[in-house]
Every structure is written in C-alpha cells, then in structure tokens.
Amino acid sequence: MGARDILADWGVREFRVIDRAAIQEITLGASILATGGGGDPEIGLLWTYKVLDEGKEIVMVDPADIPDEIQVASPACLGAALVLTEKPPASEVINLAMRKLERYLGRPIQATIPIECGGVNSPVAYAAAGELGVPVIDVDGMNRAFPELQMTSWVTHGVHASPTVSVDDRGNVTVIDTGEDDLLAENLARRAAMAYGGISWIATYPMTGRDVKGSSILYSQSIAWAVGKAVMRARREHLDPIEELLKSLLRERGVEGFRAFKGKIVDIRREFGSETTKGFTLGKVIMEGIDEYRGHTAELDFQNEWLNLRVDGEVRCLPPDLIAILDSETGEPIRTDIMKYGYRGTIVLIPAHERMRTERGIELFGPRHFGYELDYVPVEELNG
Amino acid sequence: MGARDILADWGVREFRVIDRAAIQEITLGASILATGGGGDPEIGLLWTYKVLDEGKEIVMVDPADIPDEIQVASPACLGAALVLTEKPPASEVINLAMRKLERYLGRPIQATIPIECGGVNSPVAYAAAGELGVPVIDVDGMNRAFPELQMTSWVTHGVHASPTVSVDDRGNVTVIDTGEDDLLAENLARRAAMAYGGISWIATYPMTGRDVKGSSILYSQSIAWAVGKAVMRARREHLDPIEELLKSLLRERGVEGFRAFKGKIVDIRREFGSETTKGFTLGKVIMEGIDEYRGHTAELDFQNEWLNLRVDGEVRCLPPDLIAILDSETGEPIRTDIMKYGYRGTIVLIPAHERMRTERGIELFGPRHFGYELDYVPVEELNG
Predict the structure, then answer these.
(1) Over the stretch B260-291, which tens digit does the pLDDT of each residue have?
(2) Residue B43 included in any domain
(3) Which of B170, B173, B177 is opposite residue A173, by nearest beta carbon?
(4) A173 CB near a chain B CB, below 8 Å?
(5) What are the tens digits of pLDDT across the range A327-360?
(6) Which of A58, A96, A221, B89 has its CA 20 to 30 A from that of B1?
C-alpha cells in the first residue's frame, strides 16, 4: 500500500506530487523561514532525492481533506546542527524511529507532519513519507524553526510530544513518554541526543487528524514553497530576492515582513562547554552596517536559531517572531551553525504565525523563556 | 494468580516464605555487602513491610528450580542515594516500570531478580515481587553494590540491560533499548534519572530463566541472608559482629574476608557540581587509625560505593573486591551517602564473587574502569 492508496481510502482525490524541483523549492523556503537554524538543507535534500531516485513517490495532502481519526506523527532530527553536518544520517534511522513509535502506540502512522521549517526537518518529513509510503500533510508545528521540542503550536493548542521515540544511527532506541509534560520530554530527548553523541532522530508528536487540524500551522508547506519559488525566480530573473520573498509572504500568508538591516558580520561569540550549551549552537553575533545602514550596528543572539535582534541597542525583533539573515544577492539564508566573520547579508523580520502568538505560546517560547527580561512586543509594532 | 501458583505451574514445591524478620536479615546482610552504597535500608524495608502488611505474600525460589524459558526482570532504583533519602518512592513507581517493560517485551514478567546487594535494591525486588504476585529468585547481578547499570555478572556473561524502562514518581516513562551497548544504556538511564530530578525507578535486565542460571550470582540472596543473620545474632548475644560476619561468609560462600583497619573518619571530600558527578555520590574519605591501628591512616575513594582502599599509602583493595566499613559494636554499615566526620568503624575486605572476576568483569568494573592506573590484584593477594 502506498500514499495514493491511503489517500484513496480517505476519499481524497486532490494532492500534490513532490518532485525534485518541488522539494528543492520547499526546502529553500523552509531554510529561509528557519531563522538561521534548521540545519544544512543539503543533508535533507540528498536524502529526499535518494528516496525519489529509488522510485518512491512523495505526495502532499491538504489538511482540510484528512479524516479526523487518522494517526500521524512527525519525523525529525533533534540535536546540534553543527554535529549533524559532520555526521549525516543513514537512511534507516527515521524509519526505525517511526516503526518503534508505531509499535509503542499499537497503531500504524498514516501520514507525516514536518515539525518545523528547516533545511533538515522539512525535507526529512518528505523523505520519511516517501520511505513509509504515506502522504505528507501541508502543515507544521512552527512555520519557523525553534531550538526545543516543546516549542510548537501543537503544545500551545493542547497536543503533546509524548510518546516520542529517539534513535541513533547505530540502532539504539529511547522511548520517551512524559504525558503532558513537554518540557521533560524535551529534557529527556536532549539528553538522549547527547548520550548518542550530539544528534538523534525522533518520531514525535503522534496525533490524530483532528489534532492536526486544530493545532498545526496550516498550509505551512505551501508558505515555504511559495517563498522558495519566489527566491528561485528572483535568482533566475535577476530580481531582488528580498523583495520577491516579502511579496510572496504577503501573497501567501497575508503578512508584511520588514527589511531591518544590511551589514557584515564583524564578531561571532560562540558558547561551548557548559552543560546547558551542549546540544545547541549558542552565541551572539555583531554586524556592522553597510550601504544605507553604514554607521549602524546590529546585534543578534542565537540558540540554534536567531532569537533577538537589536539595532544600535534598540530591540527590533523578539521570539517567536522570525529573523532571517539572507545573502542580499541570492536570498540564501546565513545559518548560525556555519556563518563566518565577513559574511554579508540583509536582515529580514517576519511576524510569527498567529497560532504561535497565543498567550501560552509567548509563555513557552517568548522572550522571557529565553532569559530576556522583556515583554513580547510584536515585530510589526517594533518596526511600525 | 499469585507467586505460589506460578511456582506450582513450574512444578516447584520448595520455596522460602519471606516474612518481616527474613527481609530485615536479608536487607542488613545486603547493606553490608553493598560496600558503602546501595542506599538507606529503611526505605526499601518500609516498602516491603507495607506489601506484607497488605497481606501480599513474598516467596523466594532456588535458581536451580526455575524453567529455562521463563521471563524475568530486575526492578531497581537508579540515581544518587543522597537524593533518594530526601525523596522516598511512591509504591506505584516500580509497578509502572515493570508493567511498561512487560508491554514493551510483549511478555509478562514471571519473577524478579535483585540487581545488587543494597539497602534499597535488595528489598525493592522483594516488594515488587509481592506486589506483582511473582517469586524472587535467589540470585543477583553483583553480590555487592556498584554505581553503574552495566556493572553486573549478567553483562560479563553476555546478558544485556536492554530494554530498560525508567520511570519517575509522576508517571513519566523512558524506555531504553540499546541492544548490546550496556554502557549507552547506563548513560541514557543516568541522564533520565537526572532529568527526573536525581532518582529513577527502573525495570531492567529482562532475561530468561536460562540466562538467570548462566549469568547471575547464584544464591546471592542466601549469602546476604546468612550475613544478616550472623550480625543480628552477634548483636543479641553480644558477640563480635565482624567475627560472626567473616564466619558466615566462610560458611556460606567459602571465602575468607579480612579485617584491614579500624579507625575514625577525620576528613570527607565530596565532589559536587560537575556533569560527571551528577547522579552519583562521589568523593574521598580519610580515616585515622584507632586501637591496634593507631598511627596509621586509611584513605578510601567512593562513587556511591567504596572503590579503593589505601592504608598508609599502600593499596589494599581494588574493585570489584568488596570494602565495607562497619560499626565495630553493631556491625551496621557506614554508608557513603550519610557518613560524617568522627564516625568510627572497622574496614572489612571481601573477595568479589568469581563471576565478577572474569577478564570481561575486570575490564568493565576493575580499577582501570574507575580511572586508576593500576592492574587488578585480588584482595587475598594484597592482604596475604
């Protein structure tokens, strides 16, 4: 039985077939929305290409079309992106995690849902869907990337990460079942990743179709796809990729993004070594303005993702709103795990999805959660 | 169905009924063999008394009498004994761990096996057996206590800790399945305990009856019982408890123990705070000799258990051989988690069981494993 049979079973006749070009566009868009985190798109892409090259089909379904009672889950990588770059996955690891989750649940997984927009975790959900012969649903749990397992619209809408299965590439398995305690699930999953050597592959957030519709960021894949397409077109047609990106967001999500800065990286302070920093890419970056921003300074903190932007000491963006640093010519995102002194880029700010901006969302992944003594102020107010 | 029905099913007609007096003697003996670790016997005893007071029966069976194909497992506490003293268990936690292990295995657990000789983990295996209505088998995995999950005769004889279920008293569950990688199982189980707040309750070492016979320390419970009885009798009859203990060991195990020192604790250096010390009671103790040892100095390192004894700088006992510091009047063990400046005691050394002294055993829990640049020399040679 393949993904098309499952869709036929559900009475769904419309779906999108994801080919190499599509997954490339989706992954580019997702890595832009990943706000500096989400890992190396090459890793996720190569894996997805391999699945397609083996003749497996990948299809995406509209969340409005899925039955309420189906069982779905999210396949993902959890750990420090920096480690992942040195230790790319074997193709069996996510399959093992998904199979072990099915066994623990006593139910088969009938579709995958990406956990976030990220260079790794977006395509991984497609690759896993292709491997398992199930569809991908056009949703995710963030419409951005975030460093911790519990930082999802799923949790803010009452759906939990447990049970989560965490595996490594040697076939080791950890099943984490903490009921409604998603912070403890994150804590255990992070420790398992560290015990494995820095990186783990998880099958997480098992939920029903009803939960998907009630708690996900709906059409998150379409948004990433539109963003990726816009930037690709800009490259082909020599248009301003930042401009095309902002237009695509307005068209697809109805939200306005902001250009906040243009500059080059003049200082990077990475934090290593302490227990809290293990399992994350952590630190701070200073950018010196160029062109119309000459004489100004931008300062960004990061924990896998960009967290907070200050321009000339003034706060311009706070979590969960999105910060992307993009190459001004290509629109390619500059990532926290690989950025270097001298990199140049334009900082773009994007309002978080409304399902991430609930009171519970601000509590779980707003500024105070990340240690800032600041109330959350929406990015459109900070840049109005 | 109760433990007696299970035994009848196996065609076993001989077994020992464990009452309050028996469990008290076994636990005293086990806490002496626990070499300074193993936790507070009061915690394990109170739990076992409660099970008996509820009218549940606890019976112990000879390992020679169990069928080869039965499924057994070890219920235990894993974490820092110091935390346990502050956070005694709810009675449901071990049951939850055992039930979750049964579900993961897809087979019921038909008997319990204590993991070690310890004030907590010995009686816990009896309490769990009583709760579950299954017998305890007269074996364990160490015939002493040791700080880490993989430090068992089971591992040295090819039986593995996976799958291990780790739970906390709020009902959180972690299933650890690392195949033959017992060091990683320990690493994951230790991290789970830390995530839970320092203490976890585990169901571990699922194995068959055949494995029990081939890899356990056979009659470990009888040895602990004999030691406990001897010391109790010494107290009642005002005999030297150390003398009675050594005689009981010679009788029950056919091994000779040694009096190595008598003194009082004059310095305790505990290590806290670093990641490696979390989840353990770690440090070093200095004792000043009294009576015939006046003018001499003993130095002991500990990691939950006493690891290494040096008298006047000369090594006198190395792991896996046993070091006990016992109150000279009562035979009560002095534990690493509660010892204080000024405590007085006699140091007794006991050869480890031969199933712990294999080449693989010395590799897994000999001096070099604990960071000593020393080859293992049996305690009888060091004190010959």
Answers:
(1) 999 999 999 987 655 445 566 788 999 999 99
(2) yes
(3) B177
(4) yes
(5) 999 999 999 988 999 999 999 999 999 999 999 9
(6) B89
Q: Are residues B82 and B198 in the same domain?
A: yes
Residue of chain A nearest B180, judged by CA positions: A172
Task: Using alpha carbons, select from A194, A148, A268 the residue that is nearest to residue B276.
Answer: A194
Q: Give the pLDDT score at B271.
A: 79
Report whether pLDDT(B68) > 60.
Answer: yes
User: Cα-Cα-Cα-Cα dihedral of B221, B222, B223, B226, to 10°?
Assistant: 120
pTM summary value:
0.89
- Distance of residue B148 Cα from the nearest chain A Cα, in angstroms: 15
Measure the CA–CA gap between A169 and B28, rounded to whole angstroms: 45
Task: Compare all CA atoms of chain B with the CA of A178 and give the residue at the minimum distance.
Answer: B172
- Is there a domain that residue A76 lies in? yes
Structure tokens at B331: 């035979």
CB B191 within 8 A of CB A192: yes
- Distance from C-alpha of B353 to C-alpha of B333, rounded to nearest angstrom: 20
Judge if B263 and B214 occupy the same domain.
Answer: no
On whether residue A24 sits in a domain, the answer given is yes
Asked if A61 and A144 sit in the same domain, the reply is yes
The reply to whether A135 and A88 lie within a common domain is yes
> Residue B110 is part of a domain; what is its CATH number?
3.40.1610.10
Nearest by CB to A172, which of B184, B195, B275?
A: B184
Burial A68-99 (b: 16+ CB within 10 A, else e): eebbbbbbbbbbbbbbbbebebeeebbbbbbb
Please determine, for residue A366, whether its predicted confidence score (pLDDT) is greater than 80.
Answer: yes
Note whether B23 and B154 are same-domain residues.
yes
Is there a single domain that holds both residue A168 and residue A311?
Answer: no
Distance (Å) from the alpha carbon of A23 to chain B's nearest alpha carbon:
34
| C-beta atoms of B187 and A177 within 8 A | no
Return the structure tokens found at B151.
Answer: 């430090």
Provide the domain limits for residue B357: 256-382
In a domain, A144, yes or no: yes
Inter-chain residue contact B188 with A174, CB threshold 8 Å? yes
Residue A275: per-residue pLDDT: 46
Q: Which of A99, A117, A112, A121 is nearest to A61 (CA)?
A: A112
- Per the structure, how many domains does chain A have? 2
Same domain, yes or no: B45 and B148: yes
Asked if B176 has any chain A CB less than 8 Å from its own CB, the reply is yes
* Residues A67 and A176 placed together within one structural domain of the fold: yes
- Residue among A171, A179, A191 minimizing CB distance to B172: A179
Tell the residue number behind the tokens 């016992």, with chain if given: B326
